[in-house]
Amino acid sequence: MHRLMSRIPLFFFLLCLTNAAVDYYKESDGIDFVPEHSNEWVVRIDEGDEVADLVANELGLENRRKIFDNYYLFINPSVPRRSKRATNDFTNLLTKHEKVSWAEQQQSRNRVKRDFIDKRAQEERVYRSVAFSDPKWSKEWYLKDTRPESSSHLPKLDLHVLPAWAAGYTGKGIKVTILDDGLEWNNSDIMANYDPKASYDLNDNDDDPSPRYDPTNENKHGTRCAGEVAMVANNSICGVGIAYNAKIGGIRMLDGHVTDRVEAEAIAFNHKYVDIYSASWGPNDDGRTVEGPGTLASAAFIKGITEGRNGKGVIYVWASGNGGRRQDNCNCDGYTGSIYTISISSASEHQQSPWYAERCPSTMATTYSSGAYKDQKVTTTDLHDSCTDDHTGTSASAPLAAGIFALVLEANPQLTWRDMQHLVAWTSEYAPLADNHGWTTNGAGFKVNSRFGFGLLNAAALTEAARNWVTVPKQSICQIEPTKFTPQRISAARPLEIDFEVKGCEGENNVVRFLEHVQLYVTISYTRRGALKINITSPHGTRTTLLSERDQDTSTDGFKNWSFMSVHNWGENPKGVWTIKIMDATGDMENLGALEDFRLVLHGTSEAPHRILAGPRVYDENYNTVQNERSEKRQSLESLARQQAMVESNKLASKHDAYGQQDSLDEMNNIPATDSHWFRLLARLNGNWLQ
Ligand SMILES: *[C@@H]1O[C@H](CO)[C@@H](O)[C@H](O)[C@H]1NC(C)=O
Ligand SMILES: *[C@@H]1O[C@H](CO)[C@@H](O)[C@H](O)[C@H]1NC(C)=O
Ligand SMILES: *[C@@H]1O[C@H](CO)[C@@H](O)[C@H](O)[C@H]1NC(C)=O
Ligand SMILES: *[C@@H]1O[C@H](CO)[C@@H](O)[C@H](O)[C@H]1NC(C)=O
Ligand SMILES: [Ca+2]
Ligand SMILES: [Ca+2]
Ligand SMILES: [Ca+2]
Ligand SMILES: [Ca+2]
Questions:
Q1: Listed GO molecular functions (predicted)?
Q2: What is the tens place of the pLDDT at every residue in 43-61?
Q3: Do 358 and 324 form a contact (C-beta atoms < 8 A)?
Q4: Which domains does the chain have, with CATH numbers?
């Protein structure tokens, strides 16, 4: 099944593939359309095939085939395949030929799908007509364009939720539960949607998940996450939840000892009743932790996936983590890295990856959240029957996704947990985030980025695709283990590179031809874990960083059978040569260790998912058209914010009085105190497991 082999040049293959993909997308691109002339002529010849062949020969053309009736497709090999200019001389030559009654050079035409145009117009109407009485509705910028004309250099922002509402999807009949530090269920903007059957208090073992109140409002997190999903609409209170007709519950679990058992009970709580679980927490984002679900929590995920929603599987939504400032990597977090969770990252209102966001290829998609400096934050319910527009971090992103998925399940209750992930891959938008580094197109035509997964969630596209979705074929799992593997030394001087051939379990009943998740399990011993960087390259040339350097991680524990997960090969055929590269990114010659063992686990299907039969994904480059906003002003603001974050983090590390120093820094930089307060807040949340 597997053998080590010498390196073969993959480069040319990759190159051809990428070019083909680029061409493909260009054709569907409607911006600044300039018609192009091809090297094809359609020629009418009334005297039959043989005469057509003769004419073609005579003029140095190739008679490709008869189209229908007396029309033939001729190719002129001496003319470029694409050209801005028409080859009129040649057309005249053809037209004048006595056997030719008509001829025309073919040119590309601008074809935009009709329903698409109609939808745009329809959407404009939807956006104009939505008026809610809720006072904070105007602050829900990620659902509508709230910026005044004066800042119209910014793109139109939203997750396309309004068109999904207009289509009738508001979460009716869907049960969402928030795993967190409690839920103020009697909050006036929650109570009408509160569902006691989706709620429990695992910290005090009772049925009432109300948070414990303290002077610092430490336990506001769960209530804030819940409101994003299910604030009551149009009741003149606070805002509007994305799934404002869904039922919302809360599991109080973070306000006490969090054990494997507590996590497991939360993850599988009333799992035959709840549809969607949203978790905005995880192992410490300190950049030096490697932790995942324990035995029981792992079993709980399997229960939810196999027994939930009548066997279709519950949807687990997970915040991807806030450790960006500490170079944390979400693949060192086994909750986000699980194939069962849909891990969600953040983008700021400026369509940028925020400073707190982590990178890793297990992230599936992105929603909006806070960014740098004065970027808008997220509006939601707060403790003491109040409301806030100050919710931040990837914490705020996951519940927005959970709310959107509630609309999707309402649109099609038959979807399985894997259908939902496929839908995310097919509909998330790359265009609004295209200005960020790190996008690649994989071998199946999906655009992926370790900061954003498949891109920004698009609620309208998701619900629409969900309606006619054909359930994906059953999951196959193919494991590739090296036979007779001897430990391989790793050092700064010598990166370890392993090429191995994968057949994807061909000939067996678990053959994988269309990939979903890829997991690389490794056991590595190393004197400094954070120095390690791991890349994997698929036979299609898709190069993915499974683990990036984490300079805070000085652990000598290495990795013990740790799974690094990637969704970046989605849709690819795994057959061929894969390359794993393990490097020491520090260059420190004193570091030393070895790859003790590894195993590649491929998840996917043997049969083609229905959607892929119609060809690779065509991206809408115009979606929420992003204009180039990298003005000097913007850049200087962002670098200021970054500097400040660094100062903040250094201060925390040296345990100085952060508050006193911060104030003088604020004066120096003339930044309003509220913004720096917010950096501090996130720093504190990190310590408390919250994301
Ligand atoms: C909110 O309620 C008002 C008054 O009942 C109504 O006119 C309006 O259409 C409602 N808005 C939405 C979006 O349903
Ligand atoms: C919610 O319940 C708490 C404690 O049970 C109570 O103090 C508070 O007044 C209630 N809030 C509302 C809006 O009823
Ligand atoms: C690892 O992969 C990333 C792309 O994900 C690439 O930028 C980087 O150069 C690769 N490193 C090596 C040493 O191949
Ligand atoms: C590694 O972990 C996987 C999944 O948890 C497990 O199935 C496998 O047996 C483990 N391998 C070793 C060598 O412990
Ligand atoms: Ca209680
Ligand atoms: Ca409301
Ligand atoms: Ca993390
Ligand atoms: Ca995941």
A1: serine-type endopeptidase activity
A2: 999 999 999 999 999 999 9
A3: yes
A4: 37-107 (3.30.70.850), 159-467 (3.40.50.200), 476-608 (2.60.120.260), 636-689 (no CATH)
